[in-house]
């Protein structure tokens, strides 16, 4: 057991990133948040291990809509890579978790996981630093809220494809409908009604490369 005492803090960099991301996400989703979330900065990965059961070696942040809060790893604890700078990754991390708050207000659910994470990836600005898949092979496996690292490989590109091919409004319509969906089959039926094709890899790849 670990006991934490939360203390308010001022961070001009986070405040600047947050305000910019908030405006961009308001424009994308088409509404404002009912309540702006708190931002809780996690000191390092050792502290992160006390907060999450799995994924402490790769998770950088997470969102709790019910607590009206987003949790982000301290910038110093992020690892700079050849593909993305620490500054860009930090900006994207904050925007990613903030996007989840918008998504949840629209949908009230985080399932299917590929749609939830894919939308956050598409909106956070870091998708261009990922390797684009030649074909889709795994994102549809992630239906439940429990996700692993693999969900991030294709889901952002799947959402990007849907927006580029069919427009943003259909995506937002699908997300909104998720609040009334009670099973994977209901989601598949709703997807087909909105996009006019059956949700499977064959159809996605045919249209993706078409």
Task: Give a written overview of the molecule.
The protein is globular and about 50 Å long. A 3-stranded mixed sheet has the order 1-3-2. The longest helix has 22 residues, at 86-107. It has 2 domains: 12-107, Glutaredoxin (3-Layer(aba) Sandwich); 109-210, no CATH class. It has 8 helices and 3 strands. The protein is mainly alpha-helical. Strand 2 and strand 3 (69-73) form a beta hairpin. Helices cover 49% and strands 7% of the residues. The protein has helices spanning 12-29, 45-49, 86-107, 113-124, 151-166, 168-177, 184-195, 201-208; strands spanning 38-42, 61-64, 69-73. Helix 1 (12-29) packs across helix 3, helix 4 (113-124) crosses helix 5 (151-166) and helix 6 packs antiparallel against helix 7 (184-195). 29% of the residues are buried.
Q: How far apart lie the N and C ends?
A: 54 Å
Task: Work out the helicity level.
Answer: 40-55%
**What is the H-and-E element order?**
HEHEEHHHHHH
Strand content: 5-15%
Give unreliable regions as ranges: none
Largest sheet: 3 strands, mixed
Number of structural units classed as domains: 2
How do the strands line up in the largest sheet? 1-3-2
- Count of DSSP E strands? 3
Radius of gyration: 17 Å
* General form: globular
Mean pLDDT: 93
